[in-house]
Amino acid sequence: ESSLLKIEDLTFSFRTYGGVVKAVRGVSFEVNAGETVGIVGESGCGKSVTAQCILKLNPEPPGFFEKGSIQYHGEEIITKSDKEMRKIRGMEIGFIFQDPMTSLNPTMRIGKQIEEVFASHPEISKKERKERAIEILKMVGINDVERRYMQYPHELSGGMKQRVMIARALVGNPSIVIADEPTTSLDVTIEAQILDLLKKLQKELGTAIIFITHDLGVIAKLCDRVVVMYGGKIVESGMVRDIFYQTGHPYTNGLLNSVPRLDLSRDVKLVPIQGTPPDLFSPPVGCPFAARCEYAMKVCREEMPPEFELSEGHYCACWLRHPNAPEIQLTRF
Ligand code: SF4
Ligand code: MG
Predict the structure, then answer these.
(1) Which of 49, 88, 230, 298 has its Cβ near the most Cβ atoms within 10 Å?
(2) Structural domain count of the chain
(3) What region holds the ABC transporter domain (predicted)?
(4) Which of 228, 274, 285, 297 is the best mutation target for the ligand 1 pocket, counting ligand atoms within 8 Å of the beta carbon and taking the most?
């Protein structure tokens, strides 16, 4: 496996009237060719901002890169111009955003919206654009493609619109697709169909996926590895199996207790995590989760926990994982 995307110490902030918001603080992770990496966390944890940094879609200003690097095929993204990014978006790194209503242009025909991905690529002829659009619409399971090609978004159902979004993300044959909560607005049946479709397309096309969600159930179905974010930082990362069964971080454990478990019966009580995420205007000096953590110790409020490697490829930023820390069994409901 080769590293396609390598993010190191990414730190991105926004200047606002209230001060500087530190949205992403020292985030590092890699994505290898063909794998699916999930980024999970509550809203405001920095997962969407991280995704938008990879595509340079955060407005600058008010946003700005404080430090770090984002290497795509060994090339730095952060220093690329708008013009260079327009060539990369869609063709190298595809993306699917949250809400199909806001991300498809209601005044533009489906076919044209898909072909927009080629806008910065005059070398691709009109004829080829249409052929590729039609081909990808078929691949995402849209019937009666010639007619759909001419339709507007309002003529499509929610699930169908999401298929069009996926088609648009894949038409340029990118090596990575970033999907930010693409199924959140769909009902469960349609969501399951869309996840199956993504999985199938990934197998066929070999595309790597970064899947952003607040839902660990979706992560379990789709992802190889997972990155758990809290307060703009990565608190735990590893293979999905390790995260679910060798959980290292109290926040991850809280997330697991607050979503329906696939491996347990349905009537298990779900326990939401109490409290609210940290204020990112002035993030705590110590562990970002300390104010909500039932295991918090003195050191947690004073010093940021470093990353401890629990097993190969499984990292956890929590003082409980220090070799001298007391043995604690996280409560699993
Ligand atoms: Fe809880 Fe301390 Fe671990 Fe943070 S470092 S999650 S406060 S035990
Ligand atoms: Mg978001």
Answers:
(1) 230
(2) 1
(3) 5-256
(4) 297
Q: What is the pLDDT of residues 213-223, one digit of tens each?
A: 988 888 988 99
Distance from C-alpha of 53 to C-alpha of 50, rounded to nearest angstrom: 5
Determine if ligand 1 sits within 6 Å of the CB of residue 219: no
Please report the DSSP string for 231-263 in residue order.
TTEEEEEEEHHHHHHS---HHHHHHHHHS--TT
Q: 14: CA distance to ligand 1 center in Å?
A: 27
Bridging pattern class, strands 176-180 and 93-96: parallel
In the chain, % helix, strand, coil (3-state, to 5) comes to 35, 25, 40
Atom of ligand 1 nearest to the CA of 297: 2
How far the first Cα of the chain sits from its last, in Å, is: 37
Sequence-ordered strand ranges (E) for 267-328: 308-311, 314-316
Q: Which residues have CB atoms below 5 A from the ion given as ligand 2?
A: 48
CATH of the domain at 10: 3.40.50.300
Query: Does any ligand 1 atom lie closer than 6 A to the CB of residue 300?
Result: yes
Q: Which ligand is nearest to the CA of 273?
A: 1
In a domain, 244, yes or no: no
Residue 111 included in any domain: yes
Q: Is residue 261 assigned to a domain?
A: no
pLDDT in tens, the chain (333 residues): 468 999 999 999 999 988 899 999 999 999 999 999 999 998 889 999 999 999 999 888 999 999 999 999 999 999 999 999 999 999 999 998 876 556 788 899 999 999 999 998 999 999 999 999 999 999 898 989 999 999 999 999 888 888 999 999 999 999 999 999 888 777 888 888 888 888 888 889 999 999 999 888 889 889 999 999 999 999 999 999 999 999 999 999 999 988 765 555 555 566 777 878 888 888 889 999 999 999 999 999 999 999 999 999 999 999 999 998 888 888 876
